[in-house]
Amino acid sequence: MATPGEFSFDTIQNFDSHIELSIPNYVNLRESVLRVATHFITENALVYDLGCSTGVLLAKIRLNAPSTARLVGIDRSDNLLGKSLSAGVTLINDDLTREDLTLDPCELCLSLFTLQFLPIDVRKRLIDTVYDALKPGGALIVAEKQYIDDGYIQDLFTFSHYDMKLEHFTAEEILEKQLSLRRIMRPQSEEQNRQLLGRFRSVTPIWQFLQFKAWLCIK
Ligand SMILES: C[S@@+](CC[C@H](N)C(=O)[O-])C[C@H]1O[C@@H](n2cnc3c(N)ncnc32)[C@H](O)[C@@H]1O
């Protein structure tokens, strides 16, 4: 089998349905995030989605958020941002790894399966930027694919995930995706992610399925 080209968010088609089929119970995760998010979105609140892709999460938040709340998505893929249909959501093309990236004072930041695509050495800087921008009592909701320290469980989770993907993709497509991601996606262990989020007053899991996990981090 020829080695496939590198995976790119700049060319992928039908991204929203692709991620829903690739991450088990993704729709249920989104539902959990939407419910938890409502606790932080007050009148005039500022909400960021870092690595927002098409802006679909913010579009769903828009439906129930106060009209004065400002919803801002940041992503560097024009291919994904261009697919957004959401009114009342501002989408910005920017690179989250930019050294001088700043965020305005905000109530809530979301980051679902984005940190794992950033170079490991810049994740801390981005989390520091988020932490400094959040108002006291504000929150970061973050989801990541993570590695399990126990090799047997890691293997078991990986192949359970493949079993689920086989319902929507061929074995060849699954392997090709894994090969194409190897240089651009770098999940970390739970312990490493906990360290990354260590400045927050509380870090509480709100969702998990196999090696995919989300936390509510309160400043
Ligand atoms: C796996 S997708 C997740 C998208 C969305 N959060 C979701 O859950 O559907 C990762 C997103 O991060 C974006 N991304 C990756 N690296 C980025 C960077 N350096 N700056 C901005 N966005 C980035 C990609 O373009 C992509 O939209």
Structure in words:
The chain has 219 residues and is of the alpha/beta class. It has a single domain, classed as Vaccinia Virus protein VP39 (Rossmann fold). Helices cover 37% and strands 24% of the residues. The chain has eight helices and eight strands; from the N terminus they run H-H-E-H-E-H-E-E-H-E-H-H-E-H-E-E. Strands 1, 2, 3, 4, 5, 6, 7 and 8 form an eight-stranded mixed β-sheet that branches. A hairpin with a 2-residue loop joins strand 7 and strand 8 (212-218). The protein is globular and about 50 Å long. The model has no long low-confidence stretch (mean pLDDT 93). The structure holds S-adenosylmethionine.
Indicate the CATH architecture: 3-Layer(aba) Sandwich
Order of helices and strands: HHEHEHEEHEHHEHEE
Q: How many domains?
A: 1
Instruction: State the total count of DSSP E strands.
Output: 8
Strand percentage: 15-25%
